[in-house]
Fold:
Amino acid sequence: MKLFKRAVIVVICLLLIPIAAVATAGAKQRFEDGPNRVFSGGPLVAGELHSGPDPDWGFVSEIPTIEMQLLDPAQSRRIWIAEYENKIYIWSGYMGNSIGRIWKQWPIQAERDGRAVIRINGVRYERQLQRIQSGDVLDGLTATITGKYPSATTRAAVEAGDVWVFEAAPRS
Amino acid sequence: MKNFYIFTAVAVVVTVLAVLLVPGVDDYVERTFQVYLGRAAR
Structure:
């Protein structure tokens, strides 16, 4: 019994090392201008703030990822983006399981307060995230997504709540 | 056992300092974490 107890203590102590590494890296990223990979970054500060009418969003087809920051909380993350009928969309998978919902907090936060800033090619755009849960637009949009990314996103997955889709609309 | 606790404490401190101060270590940690997180979420 004593040996077992010691073994447990040793395992816990050894686990502390990678846990400390991950926690430190995550905390460090919070003070950066923007995200890196999975850890949230701080507010998007650098870059010109776009004003005026929306551009032709077709260029985002060539953009693999963008940086997106919610105003509340003021944290940013790196995400995929798709353009469909000159509107831009972002989404989050893994929302149908508990690990995904712990990992992906931003969709829940965005549904509560959709004010956001996105940064693409160094230019910041003020947007309003509006969740889309159903509708024919999902057919074309999910086809665009699966054509651009190695993703299995389908209209059924969106309607089932496994994938949360948001239109990044202009903020009025 | 006391020596092991000291080793653990030193290792944790060195890890934290390395992530904070050594260029690229934070990115390596995040990349590795991303792999395991992705597997867990599938």
